[in-house]
Structure formats: C-alpha cells, structure tokens
Amino acid sequence: MKIVAVGHGLPAEMLREVECEKRQPGAGEVALDVRAAAVNTKDIKLYTTTDYARMRDRPSVFPLSLGLEAAGVVTAVGPNAPGPLGPIEKEDEVIAYRVEGAYASRIVVPSSCIIPKPARLSWAQAGSMMLPGTTAFHCLAATFVRPGETVLVHGAAGAVGRFATQLALITGAHVVGTVSETNFDLLRNWGATPVLRGPGFAERVQAAAGGKLAAVIDTVGTNDVIDASLELFTDRRRMATIVNLSRARQDGFLALGGEAGNDEAIRIRDHARYAIAALAQSGALHVHVDRTFRLSDAPEAHEFARMGEGGRLVLIP
Ligand SMILES: NC(=O)c1ccc[n+]([C@@H]2O[C@H](COP(=O)([O-])OP(=O)(O)OC[C@H]3O[C@@H](n4cnc5c(N)ncnc54)[C@H](OP(=O)(O)O)[C@@H]3O)[C@@H](O)[C@H]2O)c1
C-alpha cells in the first residue's frame, strides 16, 4: 500500500491509498520493506497549499508520491547498486534519504540514498531524523557556528530546531532558542537557554545572549521574526532561514534550501547523513518521536500536524 495526494486540498479529501510499486530494482537500485516514514512539513505543504509550489517555481504534479525519508529492510538489490558507505545486502536494516514516495509499505530507490540504520535507534527514530538533521547541519555549516559562540535558533523545539540546537551545543556553542513555554525544560535539559517566542522576543533574546550573538538560524520564517532578528543582529552573512527564502533574498541574508539543482546544499546535506547517523548511534544526538500513526491513517496525521498539534510524527506501514 502507498499513499498519494491526488490534488490540492485537505488531507481527508486528497490523500488516497494506492498499490505500491511491485517491480524489482533495476541497475543502481534497491527495494525496501518500509518500517517507518516521517511526516515532514513539506509533505503537507506540497498539496495543501498552492503558494508552496509557486514559491518553488515547480507546480506539484498529481498523483503525487509523498514521503522524503524512511527506514526499512532491504528485500532486493539490483545490479551495480553499492551504497555510499559500501555494499548493500538483502536483510540489511537501512535508512533511505532523500527519496520520493516513502509513504509506502515497499519502495524501490537509488542505492546512493541508502545508509545503514544506527542499531540503537527504533525504526521510527531512524526513519525521521535525516531531513531535519541534515537541514540543521546545513544551517550550522552555512552560518559558521564555532565553539564558544552564541547562536540564536528560532523554533528551537521544532523538528529542525531540535537538531540545530543539539548540533550547536555539540559544536561547543551556546544556544538561545525561541520556544513556547511548554518546551522550556526540553532546552534547559540540553544546556540551551530557552526564550519565550512571540511579541517582545527580541528584548528577551538580547537579555539572554548578553549582546554576544554570533549567528541566527531561523526555522519559523514569519515577517515578525525576521524583522526583529534583522534589528537584533546585523551580520547578514551569518543569519540564515530555511523558510522565508524570499525575505532572505530581498534582505541579503542566507536562504537555505535542499531542492534539486542546489548542488552545494545537496552535497553538504548528503555528507551530513553520516555525521547525523554517527551522533545518533553514539547517543550524543537525541532523536525525538512524539507520535506514530498507521500508514493508512496518513490523512489523520497530516490533519493533526496542520492543526499545529505539532511534534515529530511518523507513519508505520
Ligand atoms: N529549506 C529547507 O531545506 C527546509 C527543510 C526542512 C524544513 N523546512 C521548513 O522549516 C520549517 C520548520 O520545519 P520543522 O519540520 O522544524 O517544523 P515543526 O517541527 O513544525 O517546528 C516548527 C516550530 O516552530 C515554532 N514556531 C511556530 N511559530 C513560531 C513563532 N511565531 N515564533 C517562534 N517559534 C514558532 C514551534 O515552536 P513551539 O513548538 O515551541 O511552539 C514549532 O516547534 C517548516 O516551514 C518547513 O517547511 C525547510
């Protein structure tokens, strides 16, 4: 079984179950039984809004296969299909990222997308860490966060924000993160400084950072957040957004996307997969899964995410 979107609209109306791919893997391909596939914000934006397609200058083509990352078990390996870290064998437990159509019980993907699953992680953790983890890694690399510096992470308790916060702390930086009050303890337990998001956040960040802000990573993207950040922080080469790319281009700070064609970003993010997997395996990086849904309940999971119930959601075939 596989979930596709059949047009622009609401999850309950637009998501459909169809048969999944039955073909054997060809040259350079691997087939997997999927055990877990993450719900990422992009999966939802691709068919619930037309703005997103306009922003990317690439309309969604329906039926649209959803799901950019998965974890699962290799069931067949095509000819000449090594992984980036060595040979792939039947029964291997692996992560597949970045792929198309991970919302399925079986997928056939390029072998270059496959890396070993860290043994200590659950299927749900392994299937949901690569997109946010590699995006966060890209944010830190692009803003050159160094040990001893203070970095502001907007949306520090979101999927990308949690990884950005943890990676910055692992680097030896101090982190000030904007969050809702319910996420204060999460940040404090890691050793970061939480600051209440919303009106007046700039003054609170100023007080928490003590005027020593060295970089800003935005995972929220509202004009309010960006306007106040630009007033708070003047070095636009070290301020990055992953959301409001048009504001970044307009105001001369960093717009970070991992879309096809953005070779530098893809190279950084592909490389980051190994670091993310190793840090997760060592226990240095915590991978949060807030809730799992059955794959057939994908419409409910998307509705749950759209309503801002939030957290990291994972589909289990
Ligand atoms: N360009 C790229 O390569 C790329 C890659 C991945 C994701 N993205 C985009 O990045 C964004 C974040 O993705 P995600 O998966 O991390 O989303 P997420 O898990 O839903 O997290 C978003 C976080 O934003 C926080 N938030 C919402 N409104 C806020 C505000 N006004 N001020 C401060 N914080 C606010 C929430 O904080 P609380 O929970 O504390 O309330 C939430 O935790 C999405 O728009 C996604 O599409 C882009």
What does it look like?
By secondary structure, the protein is of the alpha/beta class. It has two domains: about 1-130 and about 290-315, Alpha-Beta Complex (Quinone Oxidoreductase, Chain A, domain 1); about 130-255, 3-Layer(aba) Sandwich (Rossmann fold), CATH 3.40.50. It contains twelve helices and 16 strands. Strands 3, 5, 6, 7, 8, 15 and 16 form a seven-stranded mixed beta sheet that branches. The protein has a six-stranded parallel beta sheet with strand order 11-10-9-12-13-14, sandwiched between helices. Helix 6 links the parallel strand 9 (about 150-155) and strand 10 (about 175-180). Helix 5 packs across helix 6 and helix 5 (about 130-140) crosses helix 11. The chain is globular. The chain starts with a strand and ends with a strand. The model has no long low-confidence stretch (mean pLDDT about 95). Bound molecules: NADP nicotinamide-adenine-dinucleotide phosphate. NADP nicotinamide-adenine-dinucleotide phosphate binds near residues 41, 179 and 258.
In a few lines, what is going on in this structure?
The chain folds into two domains: 155 residues, Quinone Oxidoreductase, Chain A, domain 1 (Alpha-Beta Complex); 125 residues, NAD(P)-binding Rossmann-like Domain (Rossmann fold). Helix content is 35%, strand content 24%.
